[in-house]
Write a structure and sequence with these properties.
alpha+beta, three-stranded antiparallel sheet, about 25% strand, flat
């Protein structure tokens, strides 16, 4: 949101995150499920309509992990598998 300049960036960055609600399937109640902010801008001067850009968070949805962290974890697991050979024939999987 902040690294690459784009039309509407200053306006979106200056807005606070506000709660957004949704009906929860587990309770049937309309509850706050995250935070959001949005702007509506014309992408070009000749655009006939505004486009909505939004930044949204979702509570209790886990977290983002960068690709390098995922690759490190995968390499670690692969190295463990190579160090600990499995004997599938002992349990009839060969």
């Amino acid at each position: 949101m902040h690294d690459i300049p784009w039309q509407g960036q200053a306006e979106l960055s200056s807005k606070p995150l506000v709660p957004w609600k949704s009906v929860l399937a587990s309770t049937g109640r309309n509850e706050t499920v995250g935070r959001m902010k949005e702007v509506k801008i014309r992408v070009t001067d000749s655009a006939t309509f505004a486009t909505r850009y939004a930044f949204v968070t979702v509570d209790n949805a886990g977290h983002m992990v960068s690709l390098i962290v995922l690759l490190r974890g995968l390499c670690y697991r692969v190295s463990l598998i190579e160090l600990l050979p499995l004997r599938f024939h002992k349990i009839g999987l060969t």
